[in-house]
Q: What sequence folds into this?
């Protein structure tokens, strides 16, 4: 593995940890405590030690400082010991599902920032005729999975909020209330997050675009900018959209898991070789 691929692999590994935080926006009976602890360790260690990410941040001026602050804020609010979102207890990891928006606030921009770094390094590698094929393959698989998981969690929340909004309005006999206004604001925040993920996507394949089209259509129906299809009701459209996203995530996850472990293993093997070479050089020097 060449040096540029090593850098790309470490950045990809970091983005996976950031992406996998979205797991806590899914309602599950239990969450793996060990995986939580691994993610918690991974989020901060990359900016606390001399790593490719830290090196890029340190050479990125004001933007680098902003990203490092964003990462530290992310850790503090989501993974830190004083977090009210994720909390380890005797019976396992407790997740406050009323705070999904706080998770999106951190995960989405950080993932996109690191993605921009990866794309820039890949472009630089191509310009220098360096072999980045394997890392680029994994990057594309990871990016596709990230967008699928982001849409999955965001649409789940959008559907839930939309139902809560309508219930609040029905209970008030159609009148707007403080409760419905609060929910409406959350709906707009989720829609903004969905558009942020869409706006940063470079995906062009038909399967992705079909999913994206259904998501856009659903949002427009919810906001009154598009009529429901004839003979269909909101639960029908919500279900169809969710099923489309689930299928996309299923296929993307399979593609990602088919190539990611090999890249990580290659990095570990390269690190081992580098350590052995370093020790050998030190022995000769002595």
A:
């Amino acid at each position: 593995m060449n040096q540029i691929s090593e850098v790309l692999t470490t950045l990809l590994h970091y983005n996976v940890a950031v992406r996998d935080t979205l797991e806590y926006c899914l309602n599950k009976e239990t969450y793996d405590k060990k995986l939580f602890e691994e993610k918690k360790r991974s989020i901060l260690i990359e900016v606390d030690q001399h790593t490719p990410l830290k090196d890029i941040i340190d050479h990125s001026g004001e933007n680098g400082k902003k990203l490092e602050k964003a990462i530290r804020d992310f850790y503090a609010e989501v993974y830190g010991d004083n977090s009210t979102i994720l909390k380890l207890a005797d019976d396992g990891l407790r997740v406050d599902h009323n705070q999904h928006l706080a998770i999106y606030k951190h995960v989405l921009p950080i993932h996109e920032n690191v993605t921009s770094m990866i794309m820039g390094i890949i472009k630089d590698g191509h310009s220098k005729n360096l072999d980045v094929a394997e890392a680029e393959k994994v990057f594309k698989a990871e990016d596709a999975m990230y967008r699928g998981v982001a849409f999955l969690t965001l649409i789940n929340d959008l559907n839930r909020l939309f139902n809560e909004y309508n219930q609040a309005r029905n209970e008030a006999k159609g009148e707007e209330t403080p409760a419905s206004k609060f929910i409406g604001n959350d709906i707009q925040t989720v829609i903004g997050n969905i558009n942020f993920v869409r706006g940063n996507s470079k995906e062009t394949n038909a399967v992705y675009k079909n999913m994206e089209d259904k998501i856009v259509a659903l949002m427009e129906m919810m906001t009154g900018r598009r009529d429901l299809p004839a003979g269909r009701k909101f639960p029908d459209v919500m279900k169809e959209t969710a099923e489309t996203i689930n299928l996309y995530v299923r296929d993307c996850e399979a593609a990602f898991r088919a190539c990611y472990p090999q890249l990580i293993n290659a990095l570990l093997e390269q690190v081992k070789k580098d350590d052995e070479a370093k020790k050998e050089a030190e022995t000769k020097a002595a």
Remarks:
- Residues 54 and 88 are 28 Å apart (CA to CA).
- DSSP finds nine helices and two strands in the chain.
- The beta strands are 86-89, 92-95.
- The longest helix spans residues 234-285.
